[in-house]
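Please produce the structure of this protein holding beta-D-galactopyranose.
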Amino acid sequence: MACGGEGAGGGGDTSGNKPADLTIGVAMPTQTSERWIADGNSVKEKLEAKGYKVDLQYAGDDIPTQSQQVDQMITQGADVLVIAAIDGTALSSQLQAAADAKIPVIAYDRLIRDSPNVNFYVSFDNYKVGVAQATALLVGLGLQNKDGSKGTAKGPFDIELFAGSLDDNNAHFFFDGAMDTLKPFIDDKSLRVKSGQTTIEQVAILRWQQETAQRRMEDLLTSSYNDGTRVQGVLSPYDGLSRGIITALQNAGYGAKGVKMPVVTGQDAEIASVKLINDGVQNSTIFKDTRLLAEQAVVAAEAFLQEKEPQANDTKTYDNGVKVVPSNLLPVQTVYKDDIKPVLVDSGYWTAEEVASGQAKG
Ligand code: GAL
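Below is the modeled complex.
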């Protein structure tokens, strides 16, 4: 046994150790989004229930802070690392240190890029998230029905597009899935992106910031909709951005006095947005059950601690620039207003009171 052993070993052969002697470092990006709080709590609770020690850290969306936290987890003897990266390309030296100390690394929801030292990836089918978001936009506009058949609406509809942070690998998968789905409708002119901004670079929102999305929507309204036309649909890849977009629209009079709120999509089923969907303000969100993701992270961490390879269900899709990272991908589900009760409330993800108030009880 090179290292590992009793107590503060870190890495090495851990298969003979008791859970209480093993520590899992969990690095999460930010607490400003409640999804990451739920993710962090779920992973911690599930690991602690099995007797492991957990070092859970949030980095306030600051890259140096996250690098430092991961460095510290390594020096303090973590046996496995679970990391949801802020910038998927910024952790190479930390991951090299982890590999040198034989600490397996699990990328959590966001792929860590440009490093050979990512051992496993747990996430959702991110391309399908984008397809689902674009489909919800088409359904909301009436161009398509929920069963995928052609809708009765003809258009042309004026829409705008948003994407996530360019340094997050997921943002590209979401946008690709969405654009592949929207392209035929843009080509046959039933959809028109009035601003002309259709590349991911033009529509990306750094760090997934709500305020930045609000500002971009305000700018779009001033620059492209100052001629009496109205934006009718907005592709938004994440509920936080959707709330910024909706605020900008409401400030410009949308959703009041006969001015229709455009169809706005989302992702993550954040409680404030679930309320907006329930109130008929936001069209939909994509639900990714973070409880299941946390469970997968725990299963993968345990496999590594027992010196086994976790089971992957995808060994092709997630090339991180150096290697294809074996992945376990979970399915996703679109939530429209009618789905809130059966999908989110009945499964215990949110209570009916939380949906009504728009606030998590914690
Ligand atoms: C992505 C994640 C999304 C959303 C977004 C903003 O990486 O896949 O579900 O949470 O970050 O936090």
